[in-house]
């Protein structure tokens, strides 16, 4: 159904409801409750309008304003009922209740304009200062109408307010109020039209003008006392006409899409080609497209999804209040997979030899690369390996050296393991995190403590450095450690700020000639600073 047809049908339904309400008001029997049935009917319509705005308008700020408009309509109906049901015989109260009609009559157009201005704004939207003069004029007109008994500038009555409810004339304040309401309504339409970005909705802007034209016509004829009467009563009282006009305008605006709403979910599912359905938490289907296959509760409850047949795949995702299910037709995909499988079988024999040849070449290259890496590691740790052999031989000849030599062997073996680990990591990455060097140092210090050598360490560097830099720093550390070991009383290690600082207590050491490190000896303690070239912060 097109937007035009849907909108016109909605306006037709409102017109029918208006006629029904007017007929009930005119022809209802003069019996208890029945004589005021139109008020009850109008109250039901007004509450339904409030619930509609509350449940279907997406934007929070716009929703608040439209709900407030519906609430003012409810207030208007309440005032109408109070005037004719509870205070019809009390002239003063009934007249002021009549004056109070103009509270919603003036505030609804003002709120409608503010709602149009707030359309598309964020939740923290505040009332623009340019609207404040409009609020002031509206409040001023309300004050003049509510105090009409003192000046009669809005409504003029006969002396002593005789027959005030039927025999009165309109004053200049009423005319100004009529003009002001019209200007606010025109401004509301102009703002909504200007802010709408959907060309289709802009082309349909004439539809909300239909109820607006009805409202203007009614007010004009009502003010001129020309609106038709039946049985002495107007065919539609002032509150009914204005309330239906307001409802028609805003419902038309929503129907043509000038403002967004979350209506027509069922229609969306019926028109969509997507085979989908929505169920509540008890797995009862709420919406289902015609293309969606029925699912049992056991299938809906399956967390892994179900497949009714080999050519259908069903997916499930949780949504607010339940689950959405949609199914994919994978017939074409299965057919393609079958074709590919046949093609693969035909090409398998031809490709197998080439694949094996490539795998053999790649494997040979990996083996050669690993062999070179292992050879380089073996050459670099050869001195430590020879020392381990010598210490094991000494321990075999002299059992008293067994405990001491075993701890030293562990120290040397930990260096060989950690050096090999760093070298293998460097084969896959150009940079390494400083924590890899810290782990290697920690293991060496742990074995030093086993030799009753005091150690202290702090590792406060989490950056990345060239892998070769960290390997060289660790190798220099081991060289210095092995040189200092016979006299070493304690070792302090600090890794921070792009440097590795070492303090060898009880040892006087000299650095190799080809190193960038710096050394200083004081009181039988050698202090060494090894700079690390920064390669970038850790990710």
SSE layout and pairings?
Blueprint (H helix, E strand, L loop, with lengths): L2 H25 L9 H20 L3 H27 L4 H10 L1 H17 L13 H15 L1 H4 L3 E3 L10 E3 L1 H24 L3 H5 L2 H18 L5 E2 L2 E2 L3 H19 L8 H7 L4 E5 L4 E4 L8 H5 L10 E8 L2 E8 L1 H50 L1 H16 L4 H27 L2 E3 H17 L3 E6 L4 E3 H18 L5 E7 L2 E7 L12 E5 L2 E7 L8
Helix pairs in contact: 1-2, 1-11, 2-3, 3-4, 3-5, 3-11, 5-6, 5-8, 6-8, 10-11, 15-16, 16-17, 16-18
| Number of domain units | 3
* Percentage of residues in helical conformation: 55-70%
Number of strands: 15
> What's the arrangement of strands in the largest beta sheet?
10-12-13-15-14
**Intertermini distance:** 57 Å
**Describe the biggest sheet?**
5 strands, mixed
Quaternary structure of the protein: single chain
Radius of gyration: 45 Å
- Indicate the overall shape: elongated
What does this structure look like?
- This protein has helices at residues 3-27, 37-56, 60-86, 91-100, 102-118, 132-146, 148-151, 172-195, 199-203, 206-223, 238-256, 265-271, 297-301, 331-380, 382-397, 402-428, 434-450, 467-484, and strands at residues 155-157, 168-170, 229-230, 233-234, 276-280, 285-288, 312-319, 322-329, 431-433, 454-459, 464-466, 490-496, 499-505, 518-522, 525-531.
- The protein has 539 residues and is of the alpha+beta class.
- The strands form 5 sheets. It has a 5-stranded mixed sheet, with helices on one face. A 4-stranded antiparallel sheet has the order 6-5-8-7.
- It folds into 3 domains: 3-260; 267-329, no CATH class; 428-531, Histidine kinase-like ATPase, C-terminal domain (Heat Shock Protein 90, 2-Layer Sandwich), CATH 3.30.565.10.
- The two termini are 57 Å apart.
- The chain is elongated, with a radius of gyration of 45 Å.
- Residues 535-539 have low confidence and may be disordered.
């Amino acid at each position: 159904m097109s937007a035009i047809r849907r909108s016109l049908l909605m306006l037709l339904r409102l017109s029918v409801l208006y006629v029904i309400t007017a007929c009930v008001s005119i022809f209802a029997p003069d019996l208890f409750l029945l004589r005021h049935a139109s008020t009850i009917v109008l109250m039901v319509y007004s509450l339904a309008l409030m619930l509609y705005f509350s449940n279907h308008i997406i934007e929070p700020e716009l929703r608040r304003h439209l709900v407030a408009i519906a609430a003012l309509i409810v207030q208007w109906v309440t005032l109408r009922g109070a005037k004719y049901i509870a205070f019809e015989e009390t002239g003063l109260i009934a007249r002021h209740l009549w004056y109070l009609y103009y509270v919603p009559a003036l505030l609804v157009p003002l709120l409608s304009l503010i709602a149009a201005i707030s359309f598309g704004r964020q939740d923290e939207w505040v009332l623009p200062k340019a609207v404040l003069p409009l609020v002031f004029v509206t409040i001023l007109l309300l004050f003049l109408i509510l105090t009409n008994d003192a000046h009669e500038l809005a409504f003029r009555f006969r002396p002593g307010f005789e027959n005030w409810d039927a025999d009165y004339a309109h004053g200049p304040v009423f005319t100004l109020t009529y003009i002001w309401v019209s200007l606010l309504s025109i401004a509301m339409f102009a703002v909504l039209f200007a802010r709408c970005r959907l060309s289709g909705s802009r082309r349909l802007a004439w539809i909300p003008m239909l109820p607006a034209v009805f409202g203007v016509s009614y007010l004009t004829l009502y003010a001129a006392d020309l609106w038709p009467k039946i049985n002495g009563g107007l065919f539609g009282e002032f509150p009914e006409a204005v309330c239906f006009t307001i409802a028609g305008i805003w419902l038309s605006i929503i129907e043509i899409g000038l403002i967004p709403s979350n209506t027509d979910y069922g229609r969306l599912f019926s028109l969509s080609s997507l085979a989908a359905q929505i169920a509540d938490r008890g797995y009862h289907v709420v919406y289902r497209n015609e293309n969606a296959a029925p699912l049992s509760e056991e299938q809906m409850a399956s967390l892994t999804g179900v497949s009714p047949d080999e050519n259908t795949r069903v997916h499930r995702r949780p949504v607010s209040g339940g689950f959405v299910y949609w199914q994919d037709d994978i017939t074409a995909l299965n057919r393609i997979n079958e074709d590919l499988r046949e093609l693969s079988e035909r090409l398998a024999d031809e490709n197998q030899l080439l694949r094996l040849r490539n795998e053999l070449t790649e494997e040979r290259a990996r083996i050669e690369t690993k062999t070179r890496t292992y050879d380089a590691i073996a050459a670099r740790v050869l001195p430590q390996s020879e020392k381990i052999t010598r210490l094991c031989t000494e321990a075999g000849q002299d059992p008293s050296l067994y405990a001491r030599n075993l701890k030293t062997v562990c120290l040397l073996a930990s260096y060989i393991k950690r050096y090999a680990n760093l070298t293998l990591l460097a084969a896959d990455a150009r940079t390494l995190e400083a924590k890899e060097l810290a782990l290697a140092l920690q293991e060496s210090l742990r074995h030093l403590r086993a030799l009753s050598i005091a150690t202290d360490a702090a590792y406060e560097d989490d950056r990345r450095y060239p892998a070769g830099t960290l390997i060289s720093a660790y190798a220099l550390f081991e060289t210095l450690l092995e040189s200092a070991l016979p006299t070493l009383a304690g070792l302090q290690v600090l890794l921070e700020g792009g440097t590795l600082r070492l303090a060898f207590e009880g040892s006087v050491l000299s650095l190799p000639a080809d190193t960038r490190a710096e050394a200083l000896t004081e009181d039988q303690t050698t202090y060494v600073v090894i700079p690390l070239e920064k390669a970038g912060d850790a990710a």
